[in-house]
Every structure is written in C-alpha cells, then in structure tokens.
Amino acid sequence: MSDPTPPRKPKMLGERLLEAGLLSSAQLQLALREQKRKGGFLGEILERFGFVKAEAVSRLLADDAQAGFVDVVHAVIDAEVLSLVPLEIAHKHQLLPLARDGQILTVAMADTFDVVAIDVVERITGLGLEVLAAPAQAIQDAISQKYVQGESLDDLVDAALSASIVDVAEAGRIAPLVRLVDQVIALSVRRRATDIHMEPEEGMVRVRLRIDGVLHQEAILPKPLQGAIIARLKILAGLDVTEHRVPQDGRIAFSIARRRIDLRVSTLPTQYGESVVMRVLDKSNVLLDLDLLGIREADRARFQLALRQPHGVILVTGPTGSGKTTTLYAALGQIDAIQRSVFTLEDPVEYSLPMIRQTQIQADQGMTFAAGLRALLRQDPDVILVGEVRDEETAQLATRAALTGHLVFSTLHTNTSAGAVSRLVDMGVEPYLLSSALVAVLAQRLVRKICPQCAVDDPDSVATLASRGIEADPKGRYRKGQGCESCFGLGTVGRLAIYEVLLVDGEISKAIRDGSGEDRIRECARAGGMTSMLDDGLAKAALGIVHVDDVLRAVG
C-alpha cells in the first residue's frame, strides 16, 4: 500500500499577499531581507514600509478562517454588550464584543485563530461566539473609544478649580489639569474633529471643534483655568510659557491607546488672552488610497491615465481645506516608489510616506518652494511633489522640470480646473510651454456625508433643485441625516470629495497655446468627457450619499 500524499505545506503570509495581488515580488523580497536583518513579524514590516495596509492583511486572514471582516472603529455598540467582557480581557486578548443575539455573542478579534481567547470569553459570558476579524490597531483604538473610561469634563474642571494654583507655568503640570487637557484632546479625536479651538472671552474659555468642516461648541471652561490650560498646551508643544505678546507655533505628539495623533499648535494674542488653535493630524483617518476618496470610476480612470504619464505637471486645485493634499498623497500612492525616485517639498510635512523623501519648507531660513525645487532637481528625481505653487518662480521651475522629463505634482488655489491655466499664465508661465507641460488638472471640494444610521428620505431636495433650475434625477433617492448617537446628533459622518478631472488633450493644448480663456478651455474639456464638480456632486446626492444643500454650497 502506497504512502498517503503528504500534506501540502501551508503558504506563508507573503506568498498569499503576492497571489492576491496586494504585494509585488520586489516589495516582498525587500521586506523579507528587513525581517532577516532585524527580526519581527512580516505583516508589521510590510505595514511599516507602506506596502500593504493592516486591513488588507486582516481581510486575508479572515478569508482563511472563513470569518467576516468588520470596521470596529465606526461600529455602534450597546453598553450592555460591552459590559459582558471586562476591559482588561478585551485589552489582553485584542478583542471587542459587538452585538448579542440570544445566546450568541459577536466578537471582533485581531487573531481569529486564538482559541484561548475564544475559550476565555465563552467561559466569562456563558455565550457562544461568532468571530469576526479586524486589525489589531483598529481593535485597540475601538476599545479606548467604546469602553467608558476616566472622569467627565465637569469632574475634571471641579478638581482643577479646587487645586491650589500659585504659579501659572507650574499649574500646567497639576494632575487634574493635565487630565482635563488630555480629555479635551481625546474627546476631539473621538468626535473626528480636524481642529480644536480654545477661544478666550471676557468671562470664560469657549472650546469649539471643527467636525466635517463646521465648528461646533463643545464646552465652556471657567476663566480662572485659562492661564493654566494654555500653559499646559505650551509645555506639551515646546513653546515659551512666559511669552504672551507674540504668536507661537509648535507640535504635540498625543497617543490614544497605540494610536498616535499629531497636533499642530498655533497661539495668537487677543484682547482676552491667548487664543489657541490645534490642527488634528490623525494618521489612522487619512485616506491615502485613491479608491477610498469617493472619486467616481470614470473620473478615477481619467486621473489614473494622467498618473501613468512619464512626465508633465499634474495639478490639484481648490480652496484651503478642500482636501488637496490628501488627494496628492493618494496619487503618490499610485507611483512605484521602488523603481522611481520620489521627493516632496511640503509646508508643513503632515504625514510620513514610506519610500519617499520629504522636505520641510523653512521660508524664514531661505528654504522656499523655489529654492527647494532648484536643489531637489540635483537629487536625480523622477517624481516631485511641490506642496503649492505660490509664486512666479515656483510656477516656472515646475513647468521646466516637467519639460525636462520629471513628473511634477502640485496644488493651486483656483475655483475650477480650467481656471488653473489662466492662473499659471498670470504667474508668468508662457502658454506655449504650459501647453506642452500640463497633463491634467483635478479640481475638488469637500462635502459632508449623510450618516447612514439616521438617514431618511428628503423630498425637499427636489424642490431645492427646481428652484435653481436643475432637473432632479427621477431615479434618485435624495436623503438627509436626522442626527443620532452614532453621528453625535450631527446627521453627518465624515466628508468626501466631489471632483472634475480635466485631461489636456490635443484640443485643450491648442486652446492653451492660442491663449484662449477659461470658458473655451472648459468647453473643450466638457467635449472631451469631463464631468463638472456640480454634476459629480448632484450624482452623489441622487445616490443618497450627500445632501443637495451641501453640494450647492460647496460648488457655489
């Protein structure tokens, strides 16, 4: 009798990622060499290098375990369900209870094969488990968000007021006040705020959060705590606590569980004391994947066509705060940084990108965009990201760099894609050079997304469109958010961009060369298949993703 066929050797993680098309052979070999040199887990190395995302690895493992994949950070979990599993057990075994259905408890786990953790939870709860998969980092973040921890803001304010404050600079180190500041920051991160405003007034300090582009009042703090709170923030940001007469800028590194949050801090003297505004830079929330930005398939295909060009200028336009930098980062993610040399010039460098050399602009020391671009061209670059075209010299250097074989990305402050042409010409770029160098212009705005948990049909949207002379989509389902616990009563959760993608073809190139105006260039772009931002926004409103009023407000 012949020996049975030996069992097939299980495939390693790298092989499975390779087969799934999530990893290239060159990337895998580089990561394996790093693992051999320094040790550690391959999945962590791949994520650190930026080759794959934790979610991709988790989905692969979930498929192997025949377990579903779940977004735990945005999951709404009943307090009674959380109480079934103690906090220390959740932390120890990297798991999160999600829902209970009779005698079945649904649990998200980082390691769906961890039979010890499954056994522990089943014994504690007396329930059977349905296991779903989620990244370990996401589970840790969700644990810190979902489980009720620490004191309320009111408790911390009372404790800080009762503390004996003699010296304001030293007050920044008093325990209740330290916890108060930490709570404000943590609360802001949980609510997805992009900016935290500490606004001194005559008898109080107003705390406001910018969420999805709109400011919301969050708390009122007593005036006697103003000096100590600002001192604490200055200590964290490395600023001069004794200086109150001039503006200061700094950075704070803040951690929630294992999640790192960077805060850009700006102080400004006002009549009632120093105003402090903190920009929240949350790496876990930034979308560096072009497929996740909300760009429609047709526009994404047009933009990716531009990204495949070997050289030329690609511009992203829009007002401040319209997501231009995020789109540029996502575009860079489409570039093979292993085979090409990629550099950036940024003011400031907001997020670290693997395999890309990033340079901080220091205008006060002579390191301007123009000076940096001149120096960078001597570094043998293939792809260059210039944070913003602000002046004539930068515009001309970027154009000439594109004409000499480099792919140049940048941003420009114009209202439309066609308006970028006249703006560059006004900056001194010759039309005949621009017609040869410009590859594409993507214009965008950010629009709030309707909360899917509390969305209801909105017949008023059809009337709003009619009042503007716009015909509603007869097949559309226009919706609005009523406000619920999941969206903190706002009716919206996050934002997405609406786009128009202008590809420079022969007709547009000729129009630029002939000095045609914005209207003629837009006409050529529409004839070439460009969808306007308004049309893109209204299409997304008809799908019930965004509200009509937000689209009309954003496009103007």
Account of the 3D structure:
α15 packs parallel to α16, α16 (392-403) packs across α18 (431-437) and α22 packs antiparallel against α23. By secondary structure, this protein is α/β, with parallel strands linked by helices. The longest helix has 16 residues, at 175-190. Strands 13-12-14-15-11-16-19 form a 7-stranded mixed beta sheet, with helices on both faces. Strands 7-6-5-10-9-8 form a 6-stranded antiparallel beta sheet. It has a 4-stranded mixed beta sheet with strand order 1-4-3-2. The protein is built from 23 helices and 19 strands.
Strand proportion, as a percent range, falls in 15-25%
Biggest β-sheet description: 7 strands, mixed
* Major sheet: arrangement of strands: 13-12-14-15-11-16-19
SS class:
alpha/beta
Helix percentage range: 25-40%
Residue ranges: pLDDT <50 for 5 or more in a row?
A: none
Question: Helical segment tally?
Answer: 23
Shape: globular
Overall average pLDDT? 85
Distance between the termini: 81 Å
Please summarize what this structure is.
By secondary structure, the chain is an alpha/beta fold.
Write the SSE topology.
Blueprint: H1 13-19, H2 25-38, H3 42-48, H4 54-64, E1 68-69, H5 79-82, H6 87-93, E2 95-101, E3 104-109, H7 115-125, E4 128-133, H8 136-146, H9 153-162, H10 168-171, H11 175-190, E5 193-200, E6 204-211, E7 214-222, H12 226-237, E8 248-256, E9 259-270, E10 273-282, H13 297-307, E11 312-317, H14 324-332, E12 342-346, E13 357-360, H15 369-376, E14 383-386, H16 392-403, E15 407-412, H17 419-426, H18 431-437, E16 438-450, E17 455-457, H19 460-467, E18 479-481, E19 492-503, H20 506-513, H21 518-527, H22 533-542, H23 548-555
Parallel strand pairs: 1-4, 3-4, 11-15, 11-16, 12-13, 12-14, 14-15
Antiparallel strand pairs: 2-3, 5-6, 5-10, 6-7, 8-9, 9-10, 16-19, 17-18
Helix pairs in contact: 9-11, 15-16, 16-18, 18-20, 20-21, 22-23
